[in-house]
Amino acid sequence: MNNAHLAAVRKWYPEALTSIDTVDRLLDTIEEHLDLKPHQLMHADSMCCDDVNAIQYPPRALEMLGPFHMGGLDGYPFAGITGMNAFAHHVPENGAVIIFYAPHIGITKEGTIGEVGRIGQSANSACCGAAKGALGKLSAGQIIAGNVTSLDFQMNTIEQIFLNQKDRILNAGNQIFEATEVMYEAIDERIEVLVKHTAYPCRYVILAGGIFINGDRDMGSFCQYKKFEAIEVASGKRHSLMEKYYR
Fold it and tell me: Which InterPro entries does this one have (predicted)?
């Protein structure tokens, strides 16, 4: 990664950092303000199952326990309440659960959004492919309201999310950017519902939500946070850590 690569990403996401810097700041902020070490954190992520995310996963995240994977296509938490409850009961009692959730999107070194150059391929490919596929069907008027099948449940769910925001997405200056914003909001809303219906035998629930940005094969990955909050389990009080994170 060089400064030109970060600049290409920041055309779209002005506060983005490399995923390595993101995790470093995340863990440093938690340690400084919540007095918790990485080994006291049970980590879950809700990210797309795209292989590029596994390749570009930041190594320092592995200092935490986990991760427990909650996400399916484009990061929606398809593991649901059963997954959240299972993960919640793996946490150290004097520690915290941390849930990182994000849709992902590709940005090439030239700054093209919605594409990425993958290892071993000469041409760029869609990223997120599921989001671009759903967007294509939305543009063509091919999504039927309420049509969610067992054969393609995850993709159909994304299609319904986009259909509910059809005008917003199709009237946007950049449709794949806006569709990713819509996807983040849907994921955030569902995570909040799952957290509300889960009991956590620990001190804190930490929510870190944002956009995960895949670069070309030689760029690495990036992230821009939209939410970084600590919830005190005993009292339910919330504390935003965003200002401390960006300090």
Answer: LCIB/C_CA
